[in-house]
Specification:
The chain is of the alpha+beta class and 530 residues long. The protein is 44% helix and 14% strand.
Length: 530
């Protein structure tokens, strides 16, 4: 949707830059929890059947934010639907926001450019949804008791944490709320068409899952970078794995990359990989549409239908392999006819192995704990993408989302992707830096700085990895060697220099197969920061 479809033509002349740096959203504590889980401040359509009417429902597709004083009606309407709801005001940072919005004044909502079109007389603003949850500055409650209820309820959710946000009680904001008209007079802005949410949430899931597997190797590091900050150039060669080459295009466009034509005179392996890349990204599209349709039926049935339909039109040279994969996956919906290792031997491509793993495990967190020597780096990465799309950021547990900085980085990019797809022209400002995998932070291991050497030693010792080597520099002189009772004693003149060292190749092999807990990883990251 183009920006012109959202707003009337013509700009409002700027008077002075007096736009407030923050606005208050009136909602209730359960709607707030859902938005924190999703990582997005979003319209009612994003909640499914878990939405309780609040100020968001007055202007579908827009986020109403008030400056200083919140109308009493906006606060009270957020808790009318159920007795257990607690009112909250969510303070949202607007300092880096720019673009076309609707200013709320005495006479209703008027189109303006934010921030330069505001003169300080506005009561609030309607911003096109969504906004990143990372822009939440603080959460305000009527009383300490209400704050404690919200904090207690948050502990019941596996994908919600209030820890990053300031929380305070301010009785006057609620008790002295003015009787200003709400909704404001006039017709207000047009209802925005369906706000793109499922694709961004799927992309958020992919970002988190690829970070989880970002230590596998150089391909994993690059795939993780493409998921967060895709390059502008077209799909690039990816060491012969076109599935991974399509990732940047999918994140950037919010749609599957166009089918890749096979290279002239391609051998059978190359031809197979090219066709399977097209099938893979079409499968991703089918999963996204399944999410958009409310997840009717199972994700497995979506993939089976996709393979059955696609195989009929495929090149005969790859058709038999896809039909074989379909039959294998279909058998896994029942009791199955082989072990996991046998299944991975039967299908030796990233598409086949990723889909097989998808049918063997129910959630992304399960494949993080799963181990198999039959799976290579491209197989794990393709599987991580499928699980990330299927689960989405909203369904991932805190265990996967626990990296410091990850929620803010993902939240911003999901909102940014939504506005890019919708064409609102809203600029959210510079995104937070992405979280880089440990593999990327350690570099290629050819030349390590002292801080990298120290972090690698500490991690290797903690995990008992057999990659620590010791160098002993001996000066001139005579040495005496004594072996007694199975132990060896060496007598040396002076004090030799003993230097622990790391076999970087073995270190990266261990790191690729490691499943580090969040505490251990946090210590290593702190060490690398110096």
């Amino acid at each position: 949707m183009a920006t012109a479809d959202l707003f009337a033509p013509g700009d409002t002349p700027a008077s002075s830059v007096n736009a407030p740096g923050a606005g208050l959203l009136a909602t209730n504590h359960l709607n707030l929890m859902y938005m924190l889980a999703a990582g997005l401040v979003m319209p009612p359509a994003g909640f499914g059947d878990k939405y309780y009417r609040d100020s968001l429902g007055c202007f579908p597709g827009w986020i109403p934010l008030f400056f200083g004083k919140v109308p009493r009606e906006a606060i009270e309407s957020a808790t009318r639907e159920a007795a257990h709801l607690k009112p909250v005001l969510v303070e949202i940072d607007l300092s880096r926001l720019s673009g076309r919005v609707m200013a709320i004044g005495e006479d209703g909502a008027v189109e303006r450019r934010f921030p330069d079109g505001f003169d300080g007389t506005e009561r609030g603003v309607l911003v096109p949804a969504p906004l990143p949850a990372s822009r939440i500055e603080s959460i305000v409650f009527p009383s300490v008791g209400d704050r404690q209820v919200c904090e207690r309820d948050a502990r019941d959710f596996g994908n919600v944490t209030l820890e990053p946000f300031k929380r305070r009680a301010s009785k006057p904001l609620f008790a002295k709320a003015p009787n200003l008209p709400w909704p404001p007079p006039g017709e207000g802005p047009a209802v925005r068409p369906a706000v793109p949410l499922e694709r961004p949430l799927a992309a958020g899931g992919v970002m988190a899952m690829l970070l989880l597997f970002g230590n596998l190797g150089e391909r994993a590091v690059r795939a993780c970078g493409d998921a967060f900050d895709p390059a502008d150039d077209p799909a690039r060669p990816f060491d012969g794995y076109p599935i991974l080459a399509g990732l940047a295009t999918w994140v950037r466009r919010g749609a599957a990359p166009p089918p890749m034509p096979p290279p002239p005179e391609a051998d059978r392996t190359t031809l197979q990989r090219v066709f399977q890349a097209t099938l893979f990204w079409e499968a991703v599209e089918r999963l996204v549409r399944w999410r958009e349709d409310g997840c009717a039926g199972s994700a497995e049935s979506v993939l089976l239908d996709h393979l059955a339909e696609a195989s009929a039109s495929l090149d005969p040279r790859v058709q038999a392999g896809i039909r074989k994969l379909h039959d294998t996956l279909e058998s896994l919906t029942g009791l199955g006819d082989a072990t996991a290792s046998e299944l991975f031997e039967r299908h030796d491509t990233p598409l086949g192995r990723a889909m097989t793993l998808f049918f063997l495990r129910r959630a992304g967190v399960e494949i993080f704990d799963y181990r198999s020597d039959r799976l290579g780096e491209p197989d794990w990465l393709a599987a991580a993408i499928l699980f990330g799309v299927r689960d989405g950021w909203l369904s991932l547990p805190l265990r996967i989302r626990a990296h410091p900085g990850l929620p803010a980085a993902v939240s911003h990019r999901m909102a940014e992707m939504s506005h890019r797809i919708a064409g609102t022209g809203l600029d959210l400002g510079e995104p937070p830096a992405r979280v880089r995998p440990l593999r990327e932070l350690f570099g290629d291991g050819t030349v390590w700085r002292a801080v990298e050497q120290s972090a690698a030693l500490e991690l290797s010792r903690a995990e008992k990895w057999d990659c620590v080597r010791t160098r002993i520099n001996l000066g001139p002189g005579e040495y005496r060697l004594t072996v007694k009772g199975g132990s060896t004693v060496i007598e040396l003149p002076g004090e030799p220099r003993i230097s622990p060292d790391i076999d970087s190749e073995r270190f990266f092999d261990y790191l690729a197969g490691a499943r580090l807990d969040s505490g251990t990883e946090a210590k290593v990251r702190a060490k690398l920061r110096g």
